[in-house]
User: Fold this.
Amino acid sequence: MTHAATPSEPNRRAQIAGFLAVAMAATVGGALAFQYIGGYIPCKLCYEQRIPYYVGAPLMLVACLASLLRAPAWAVRSLLAVGGLLMLYGLYLGVYHSGVEWAWWPGPTDCTDVAGPVDTGGNGVLDALNKFVPPSCDKAALRILGLSLAGWQAIAALILGTVAFKGALGKD
Assistant:
């Protein structure tokens, strides 16, 4: 016996996708606020951690619209699953970055403890202002309740990934 879709089922997936779009945008928006309002300069790994959100938020908007426009369930489920995979990748990046900060494993060689004496080229300190030295990936700029921003991003990615996979794999 086949199950006929009720009007509320596409709306449930639309709500999940809409929530994910807003939550992903808020998460990366928080990171941008720490950068531009709080003055915390991100390291290389911090920038990489934003990529799943930059891709995921618009993708979840597409999933929301697809659900509202009554696209086939497999299409909406697939979009939600891709969102879950993006958050799984974000979780990996957050755990990896946190482990680098806690010195559990080495970080990228081009991102650890690079801040040192700045070569002024013999022209003085003012000329050195044009030489930007990015922050090191192995030093947390801020800890909130014992976790760095990378750790909090990992928690956000875990929660959002779980929601996305539940939406993709949930019963019709």
